[in-house]
Write a structure and sequence with these properties.
With 495 residues, the chain is α+β, with helices and mostly antiparallel strands. The strands form 2 sheets. It has a 6-stranded mixed beta sheet. Strands 4-5 form a two-stranded antiparallel sheet. The longest helix has 92 residues. The chain is flat.
């Protein structure tokens, strides 16, 4: 199993950063240079003299001031037009948030390099730098390097050979070969693409490196669970050095506590196992003693039985060869008697079983007949109750239907445009002429063209139809009842 190592990169801007993969250049170079402006809890200033620097200066502030001056003096050519519309080229300053530099950290894990030599460190740094230059030659090239630093005053001291743990810092300009600032090339896509190829390229150079955990941005867009997982990891990866150190310490403490708990459980299991083994040994000893005692009792009983068979009344000691024939004959006689008793017992058992089966069959037939009679009476009572309930329900339904019709007539009468008083007046006028019911109801007209007589006849027809439906339903129920009763009578007759 190999190891994992990711090159740390960040773009350098003037002033405070306002984006991802961007940092305050002056603060970064102040920590990188001899000033060692750092609040890291892992920093040991007593070892700062072991740090080495290469480049135009060992002062991070001096290098940054020169990088910032160069950026301030830079002018961009912008094509435009004057007031007359003629083409013109203008020169503008770089935007303040332009990425003018880049900081690189190559830090192999100290668990791997505890026994590395100076040559192995140098080869690891050089191989990583060359792969970075091949991947993005516009920024990462030797001409852009402003200065490099190897820090040995952070982390742990390796043993042996007492060489302090170290890592490489490098600061460089973000200027392309044609003189343009191109720091905008350092973004999330650059990190993802580079981390995919970096471990494979290092393996080609002989380093046993594992692939890095890289975000799949296509899956990130569609998988919400994967997106939340990557966000949580990004939040943890963006911690400060102190937070990271405290996190590792807390994790180590948690692992130590877990190991202590597991050791305690193991000790308890071992103690329990030892107690079980001791109990097994005691049980085996007691079992052996019990077998010895039982063996002696069987031996005495055996001798006494032979003495009784011989009629001597004396215990038999020594060998048993003299009574072999007696034992065989006794065994044969015992077998014959036993078989006879077993056959007699079996015959008796068969007779008893037949008697019991007959009793059960008779009892079952009686119970079945009683059950059928009870079911018949129950069905008859249920049918009678059903008819009574249905009759009451139909009477109730008829009453409710009549009430509903009256309410409907009242509602429709309220909706008529004809004034109620006018209807009463017409009725009174007609009644003075002493007509029949049919005549005066035919003279009362409604808005839809119908008369009171028409609506009255429609109501009577509806009642007749409902009564016919009820009669048909009663006939079906009576037919079903007679069919059930006839089938039940046939069953009783068959019995």
């Amino acid at each position: 199993m190999g190891f994992k190592c990711a090159i740390q990169l960040t773009g350098l801007v003037r002033g405070e950063s306002n984006g991802k993969h961007r940092s305050n250049g002056k603060a970064i170079l102040g920590e990188m240079g001899k000033e060692r402006i750092s609040s890291s809890v892992t920093l040991d200033r007593s070892r700062s003299s072991l740090n080495t620097y290469e480049g135009e200066s060992d002062s991070g502030f001096a290098v940054w001031d020169d990088m910032e001056r160069r950026a301030n003096e830079c002018r961009l050519e912008v094509q435009g037009k004057d007031k007359s519309g003629n083409p013109v080229i203008r020169h503008r300053r770089l935007p303040h948030n332009t990425v003018i530099g880049c900081a690189v950290i190559i830090n192999p894990p100290y668990e791997v390099c505890t026994d590395w030599t100076r040559e192995q460190y140098d080869k690891f740094y050089q191989d990583s730098w060359e792969i970075l230059c091949e991947f993005q030659p516009d920024i990462f090239r030797d001409e852009n390097i402003r200065f490099s630093a190897i820090h040995r005053d952070e982390g742990l001291e390796t043993v042996p050979p007492q060489i302090p743990d170290e890592h490489l810092h490098r600061a460089l300009d973000c200027i392309s070969p044609d003189g343009r600032y191109c720091g905008n090339l350092i973004d999330s896509k650059f990190y993802t693409d580079f981390n995919k190829v970096y471990p494979a390229r290092m393996r080609e150079r002989g380093w046993d490196m594992d692939d890095l955990d890289v975000t799949d941005w296509e899956r990130y867009k569609t998988d919400d669970e994967y997106k939340a997982e990557r966000k949580a990891k990004a939040k943890n990866s963006g911690k400060s050095v102190n937070a990271h150190a405290f996190g590792k310490a807390a994790k180590a403490m948690e692992e130590a506590n877990a190991a202590m708990v597991e050791n305690h459980k193991t000790e308890r299991r071992l103690m329990a196992t030892q107690k079980q083994q001791e109990q097994v040994a005691r049980d085996q000893k007691e079992k052996g003693e019990y077998l010895d005692k039982t063996s002696r009792q069987i031996d005495r009983a055996f001798r006494k039985s032979f003495s009784s068979l011989l009629g001597t009344g004396q215990m038999i000691y020594g060998d048993y060869d003299g009574v072999a024939d007696i034992l065989v004959n006794a065994a044969k006689l015992y077998k014959v008697n036993t078989e006879a008793e077993a056959q007699e017992k079996a015959d008796k058992t068969v007779e008893e079983k037949e008697t019991v089966m007959k009793r059960k069959m008779n009892r079952s037939l009686r119970e079945e007949r009683v059950e059928i009679e009870q079911q018949y009476r129950q069905d008859e009572a249920e049918l009678e109750l059903y008819f009574l309930t249905r009759q009451a329900a139909l009477e109730q339904a008829s009453l409710e239907e009549q009430l509903e019709l009256e309410a409907d007539l009242k509602k429709k009468q309220d909706e008529l445009d004809t004034d109620i008083s006018e209807v009463k007046r017409q009725k009174a006028k007609v009644m003075q002429e002493d007509p029949s019911r049919q005549e005066w109801m035919q003279k009362i007209h409604y808005k839809d063209g119908s008369t009171a007589e028409d609506r009255y006849q429609a109501h009577l027809a509806k009642q007749r139809e409902a009564r016919a439906d009820s009669e048909r339903h009663f006939a079906e129920i009576a037919e079903k009842y007679n069919s059930m009763r006839n089938s039940t009578d046939k069953e009783y007759t068959a019995d």
